[in-house]
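Q: Structure for this?
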Amino acid sequence: MTSDVLILGGGIVGAACARAFLKQGLKVTIIERELIGGGATAAGMGHIVVMDDSEAQFALTKRSRDLWDQLVPELPSSVEFERRGTLWVAADQQEFNAVSPKLSYYNSRHVSAQLLSAQTLYDAEPHLREGFAGGFLVPDDSVIYAPCAAAWLAQGANIIQADVKTIDDGKVTLAIGEQHKAANLIIASGHYVTQLFSTIPVKPRKGHLAITDRYPGQVRHQLIELGYLKSAHGDSTESVAFNVQPRKTGQLLIGSSRQFGADHSAVEPHMISKMLARAAQYLPNILNMSIIRTWTGFRAATTDKLPLVGRYRNADRTWLATGHEGLGITTAMATAELLTHLIAKTKAPIDPTPYLPERFPQCRT
Amino acid sequence: MRYDAIIIGAGPAGLAAARAAKHAGKQTLIIDDNHGPGGQIWRGRDGIELKGVDRRFSTQITDLNFSATQIILATGARELFLPFPGWTLPHVLGAGGLQAMAKQGLNVQGKSVVIAGSGPLLLAVASNLKKAGADITLIAEQAPWSSLLHFGSQLLRWPSKLTQALQLFNINYTPNLWPIEAKPGEVLMSNGKTYPCNYLACAFGLLPNLELARLANCKIENGFVKVNRHQQTSVQGIYAVGELTGIGGLEKAEAEGEAAGAGTATLGNHQDFVKLLTRTFKLRDELKQLAQPDTILCRCEDIPFSRTTQCSSMREAKLQTRCGMGPCQGRICGPILEQLYGWPSDSVRQPLYPVPLKSLIQS
Amino acid sequence: MPHIVINGTPHQADEKTTVAAALMNLGITSRTSVSGQPRNPLCGMGICFECRVTIDGIAYQRGCQVEVREGMEVSTDAI
């Protein structure tokens, strides 16, 4: 079978790519091993957030959030879009002092943000434990239900449920024996990419999440500790951070944890324990809430915390779109946009250089 | 304290296992989520003998985080529900469900009850509710007369069961009849007649509670835990007894429990009776077509039948419609989807039941 | 006979009765579903979660697994 664009992986990144190329009038096929939006996309939180760990991360997340915002009028209700805003909580005065430069950084780059004094922090989130120094609010960040978003983005693509056996530039052989060809092949298979190309510098980074029964109104914003960046961007084998998301259903999604080297997907009670204990330090009233499910997922992590978006080695027709770690829901949109420009050799709204796979020697030759 | 045998579930199978294990000199613990021993069948019965056995009641098992030389799963069965218009109305309960409520204090004195569905439980429920003062106006069994007559003739092989069946027989027992639609205070049946009732008690057979066995990675075959003659599952040290290994009732449960506890082979061929029950009370296809587009399948999330028709697996239904994502964790709608679409159950993970968040924080 | 408070109103319940049975005896449905339907227990044995109520301030407890106690406060307001 022949398509214009063949996408391996039907997660949020593959689905966003599908939509971008379908909009160009191209014939798109997605090959997905299980379900559209069923892997890391379903395991994650569905937080659309601007992050400032690096200039490149900021550019990609901001552009992506803008692209999501453009879609809002079209999103079906199943996507559960809510502009909750992200409220970063400063645990102490030292963390709060670091917020001022962050504020000018965001505002100078046209992302609305505000400092919250301790008083306004508690007005905004009355259930936070007493004693925090303040907060940093990014009001335009939002929350979605990602599996339905992925299914919606992938509408119109030809979807084949199968495992991939081999890849030759532009040609894919499925485990079921079929061969598929395309002018361009996009690999958007998260951390599974290393099963296809073992040298690609992406490592699975396990995460745990827990969800409560319905407690509407208890939490209003996506709440994250400012120390989150230390957890997200440190390289320790195990870390947890306070990260709680109110869902449209009234449920609270409670995270987060990060582990390198975990080779099985089982829920680990000691990680759940650490993660929930951390969350309860910020929101004590969750202690009596009912947890109805816990689960795990694997982020596709790179060493420099930026995704791999662009040509793979010298292959003419093979493109990577992976390595988004914990930001895939947000950055799927700008990733897809970048690829359309790279393939068409046109100028993208943001500079693609920081994300090109060729920054890693393994992806160069 | 380390136990030689931990038994999970204190119904007939678990109690037999506990007594036999104790008798064999094992340091034994029995755990159940109910207030006391007896399971569903002997719920609230006084004087159940458990001398020398440590026990923990009102204890929900949400994870398999204990170790013992032998773990015996005796988690019993629950009812299979099938959706039909009106099955979510407040006067519609399970058959065993209404019986359980009566045993825990629901006053059914003078209430009119229609019992509908399938299986021997219907007659047992009718008998118990009648004793509690209810007026049983109809017992509708979906199986046809031919199956039931064959069943009756085969019961000669199990004289005690035959005696029991004759004792339970009720004049209002009507084969070949099933519910079509419940409305407040009444139910329309497949014969076109509407029966007024204070309660409609309705269930379509029993299903093993497999969650713990699945969590322990025990091999499941044709919907039941696979065991050898000693009731050992595919996992070393883990045993399964009673309804988990086939819906077969009291004698089977006690024989299997005793064997697992004592460390001997199970006596008697109980699987013949299991097969006879399965064949007799096989569900007719019409029952799987009762749901209308707006009939709710997932009662936790109120997901109607129409929303699931686009899906092709349990997991897709969960992810795309929220069917099965509520606090019962798909225990009610999972088997329904399996009946309606043939989708196998999704995987299980701890906590097996919703738990207070603080209980997941290790001290 | 234990005195209990249901949705702010005092009631008496029989000894050895579960919260779920006590509510049914009083004709009070145990919960309102997410789309607004009144619901009563289905399974009576802790599986279906239709009987979940708030007991003494703790939400989402299964009424069929808890016996009434003197002074207990029950609310059927949670979703």
